[in-house]
């Protein structure tokens, strides 16, 4: 029995979201039905589904994928860039008490995703330098 | 013009991923009838062959195949539940000819004029 976390999110437009997430994950969905799509990832182990309709704003600060190397962060950046999706770099940044290389991309519903690698622990909490419209960055002392 | 800027960009983007170049290599080899490396296919390669050769799961291979197909670099043929892929020589030829005409031939022409 393989244990996998399962995340199901609401999306406004299924087609647009499938296009975004297939580039973010670099995989096709394993199941697509009217109003529903499922991505079944091995790395990271994740059962991720899109459900069309409903409220898309919840208590999510941001979402992310931790990878094993800076090369993988850059590969994700290339993949997203060549798909015409805008990314923000934060290389060698200190965030959440760790030194990280990361990139950010925003889903069609405004969910912020980061792809990051942790290089070392840091003494300082740090704060993301990317300014989001909502004003809540990756790590604020209030809600981080 | 053989290729528009948009077409050139689309093809270059599709080729800009090392995994996709590996897939193009495999499909190109698989398309030659002399030494077929495919097992389950008669003509062209199917997802399962590429999956096995690259030790990658189907959803990942499918993602990259779709990107190559969208750029017109691969033909897709459906037979029953199987999809077979072959290199679209025409796209590659147009791509190469366009780069050649724009940057190679033009350059030679300009140099000749300067002299």
UniProtKB/TrEMBL annotation, chain A:
Gene3D superfamilies named in the record: 2,3-Dihydroxybiphenyl 1,2-Dioxygenase, domain 1
Stretch forming the signal peptide: none
Database matches in PROSITE patterns: VOC
Sequence ranges assigned to domain VOC in this UniProt record: 3-118
Organism superkingdom: Bacteria
Any one GO biological process: response to cadmium ion
NCBIfam families: ArsI_CadI_VOC
Protein name, UniProt field: Glyoxalase/bleomycin resistance/dioxygenase family protein
Organism per entry: Polycladomyces abyssicola
TrEMBL record, chain B:
InterPro entries xref list: ArsR-like_HTH, HTH_ArsR_DNA-bd_dom, HTH_MetalResp_TranReg, WH-like_DNA-bd_sf, WH_DNA-bd_sf
SMART domains: HTH_ARSR
Keywords attached to this entry: DNA-binding, Transcription, Transcription regulation
Domain HTH arsR-type: 1-107
Example GO molecular function: DNA binding
CDD domains, per database record: HTH_ARSR
Protein name: Transcriptional regulator
Organism per entry: Polycladomyces abyssicola
Lineage: Bacteria, Bacillati, Bacillota, Bacilli, Bacillales
């Amino acid at each position: 029995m393989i244990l996998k976390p399962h995340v199901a999110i609401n999306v406004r437009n299924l087609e647009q979201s499938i296009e975004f997430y297939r580039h973010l994950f670099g995989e096709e969905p394993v199941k697509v039905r009217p109003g529903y799509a499922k991505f079944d990832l091995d790395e990271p182990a994740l059962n991720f589904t899109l459900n069309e309709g409903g409220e898309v704003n919840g208590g999510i600060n941001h979402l992310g994928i931790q990878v094993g190397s800076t090369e993988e962060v850059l590969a994700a950046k290339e993949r997203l860039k060549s798909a015409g999706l805008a990314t923000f770099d934060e290389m060698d940044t200190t965030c959440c008490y760790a030194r990280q290389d990361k990139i950010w991309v925003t889903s069609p519903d405004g969910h912020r995703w980061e792809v990051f690698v942790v290089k070392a622990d840091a003494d300082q909490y740090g704060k993301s330098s990317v300014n989001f419209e909502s004003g809540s960055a990756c790590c604020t002392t209030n809600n981080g | 013009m053989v290729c528009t800027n948009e077409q050139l960009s689309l093809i270059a983007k599709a080729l800009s991923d090392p995994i996709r170049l590996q897939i193009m290599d495999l499909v190109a080899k698989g398309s030659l009838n002399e030494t077929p490396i495919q097992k389950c296919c008669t003509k062209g390669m199917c997802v399962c062959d590429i999956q096995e050769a690259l030790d990658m799961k189907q959803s990942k291979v499918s993602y990259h195949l779709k990107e190559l197909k969208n750029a017109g670099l691969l033909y897709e043929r459906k037979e029953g539940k199987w999809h077979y892929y072959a290199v679209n020589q025409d796209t590659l030829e147009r791509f190469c000819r366009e780069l050649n005409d724009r940057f190679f031939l033009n350059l030679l022409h300009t140099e000749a004029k300067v002299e």
